[in-house]
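Amino acids appear as letters; backbone shape is given numerically. Here is one record.
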Amino acid sequence: MTHIESRVRQAGGGANTCVHRRDPTPTVGRIRRPNPDILPTTMAYDVSQSAVRLTGVTTSPRYWSLSVFQHNSDNIFVLNDRDLRSPSFDVVIFAAGRQVQEREGAIMIESPSDTGIVLIRRFLPDEDEIEPILANQNAMICDLLPYKLK
C-alpha cells in the first residue's frame, strides 16, 4: 500500500491532510472505475509522532462511511451513518503502544502500523445535491494530538 499512501500524501501536500474529491465523474485522476455516486475524502495518516483526530458530521440520511486501513491494507476499522447515535463523528487514530489523551465521546482507534489510509465515502444520489456534500467535506477537521509522555 506504499504506492497508494504516497499518491494520497502527494495529493494532500503531506501526511495527515484530507484530500476531497470534488468531481462526481467516472474518470478521476489515475483511479480506475471510481464510483460516480460517491464523493470520497482520503487521508494518508502517519501516527509515528502524534495521533490524528478527525471530526465532522455525516451526510445522514444519505449514506456515509469511514474506513481505516493499516499499512498492509488490512481494514482495521469501519463506521457508517447507521452505527452512529448522532450525526457527528469524532475519531482518534493512534499508534499501537502509544498513549493519547482520551476525548469524551471520541472513538479511539489503535493502528497496528504507523501509516495507513483513511477513506470517507459520501453518497451523492444526484449532481443537484453536490453543494451540501461539498460543504460537508469543507466542515471536516483534521487535527494532530500529541502523545502523552511515558
